[in-house]
Specification:
This protein has 2 domains: 86 residues, no CATH class; 37 residues, no CATH class. It starts with a strand and ends with a strand. The protein is globular and about 50 Å long. The longest helix is centred in the middle third of the chain and has 18 residues. With 124 residues, the chain is α+β, with helices and mostly antiparallel strands. The protein has a two-stranded antiparallel sheet with strand order 1-2. A hairpin with a 3-residue loop joins strand 3 and strand 4.
Length: 124
């Protein structure tokens, strides 16, 4: 879709972000191409993308900024982005009044203690 001569892309998903990040880390996509894609697709993502996708883009953009400013080497950038790729987030609404954000990297099961209730098990 084009608006006023500018190409506007619809909602960006966490899966799309991870796919492109993995492609860059695997060497299938250059850093410049990855950055160009990220900038084009994440513009105005606050309007229609999930909080997890927004947080993921923020984490990536922070590392790219640190790299651009010379605070991260090529190797350190790849290491940081690999860590981001391997971390997952899950939002869970409990009784619609509480939001819990979990960040994990390896455990397939998470047990959440809930006051006065049996623990909630989340399999990932």
């Amino acid at each position: 879709m084009r608006v006023g001569g500018v190409k506007w892309l619809a909602m960006i998903s966490e899966a799309q972000i991870r796919e492109h990040l993995a492609s860059y880390l695997a060497g299938s996509e250059s850093l410049d191409d990855f950055e160009d894609w990220l900038v084009a697709t994440s513009w105005n993502m606050h309007r229609d993308s999930s909080e997890i996708a927004q947080h993921l883009v923020n984490e990536i953009e922070l590392r790219l900024s640190e790299y651009s400013d010379g605070h991260l080497s090529d190797r350190a950038l790849r290491r940081e982005l690999s860590e981001i790729l391997n971390n997952k987030s899950v939002d869970i609404d409990v009784e619609t009044t509480t939001r819990i954000r979990l960040r994990f990297s390896s455990s397939p099961t998470i047990r959440l203690p809930l006051a006065g209730k049996p623990p909630l098990e989340v399999f990932v």
